[in-house]
Automatic annotation (TrEMBL):
Its cofactor is Mn(2+). It comes from Anisodus acutangulus. Pfam families: ChaC (PF04752). One of its GO terms (biological process) is glutathione catabolic process. It is found in: Cytoplasm. Belongs to the gamma-glutamylcyclotransferase family. This is Gamma-glutamylcyclotransferase. Keywords: Cytoplasm, Lyase. InterPro entries: ChaC. GO terms for molecular function: glutathione specific gamma-glutamylcyclotransferase activity. One of its GO terms (cellular component) is cytoplasm.
């Protein structure tokens, strides 16, 4: 069991004709009515009151089957840079696994759906495909609550997917996450927010907890190194002396000779 860190704190199947995209898995059940656009969020936006960029009409907590989270995707424009890519979360197919998150349902016509999808495609630009999945809730693990749910995924292929980093040892991933920084902030903040989001919905992910704890260890090492460096720099300064002895020798002058003029 992974040790946990104490933390404070209904929709029509989306048709490919309306929203064309490449999919790895297409699930269609005509007996379930669904909204035009449903996005499954498995990252940091699970518990936010706003999806941080697009309007939505309904949100539901639940899970998808046969997928697990992995930090195998590079990010060079949000939490990292091309020189120092961040590591971010993507989904990997894994039989028998479940991945908890939230669905955001968007109703209101094609224009509203288009805006939401354009925003999501900008935000998730490192993901090279979209997959349609079934979405389940705690109430019924056999019958999906929704079908045709969009989730952004990435091809696990370093040759054909330039953003795919692949797996790495836990410590190596932690160092990369702890030290990467981009226009949207630190990479470490991203994983800590995800950890808390899953805590808040009461469905923690052991993999995320283990990786986040390793990132904390690296942060401590990095911070202690910075403090040591500051001390070394500080000790190199020459202290001011309160008393300065002058190298100049001072000699007493001979008594002045006064000449008195005679009348």
């Amino acid at each position: 069991m992974v040790s946990r860190v104490s933390l404070s704190s209904n929709p029509p199947f989306i048709s490919p004709q309306i929203h064309p995209f490449s999919e790895k898995k297409l699930i269609s059940k005509v007996n379930i009515k669904a909204p035009p656009l449903i996005h499954f969020e498995h990252q940091t936006y699970i518990v936010q009151s706003s999806a941080s960029g697009f309007e939505y009409d309904e949100k539901m907590i639940g899970y998808i089957k046969d997928y697990k989270r992995v930090f195998d995707l590079a990010c060079i424009d949000h939490r990292g840079t091309p020189e120092h890519p961040a590591r971010t979360c993507t989904l990997e197919e894994s039989e028998g696994a479940i991945c908890w998150g939230a669905v955001y349902c968007v109703r209101g016509g094609l224009e509203k759906e288009k805006k939401a999808m354009e925003y999501l495609e900008r935000r998730e630009c490192e993901y090279d495909s979209k997959t349609l999945v079934d979405f389940f809730t705690e109430e019924d693990s056999a019958q999906p609550a929704l079908t045709g749910v969009i989730v952004f995924t990435s091809t696990p292929d370093k040759v054909n997917n330039k953003y795919y980093l692949g797996p790495a040892p836990l410590e190596e991933m932690a160092w990369q996450i702890a030290t990467a920084h981009g226009p949207c902030g630190d990479n470490r903040e991203y994983i800590f927010k995800m950890e808390k989001a899953l805590y808040d919905i009461d469905h923690e992910d052991d993999y995320i907890i283990e990786l986040a704890n390793e990132v904390r260890k690296v942060c401590e090492i990095v911070n202690s190194g910075i403090q040591k460096e500051k001390k070394l720099i500080g000790s190199a300064h020459i202290p001011l002396k309160t008393k300065i002895s002058s190298p100049v020798k001072i000699f007493s002058l001979p008594e002045a000779v006064v000449a008195v003029a005679a009348d």
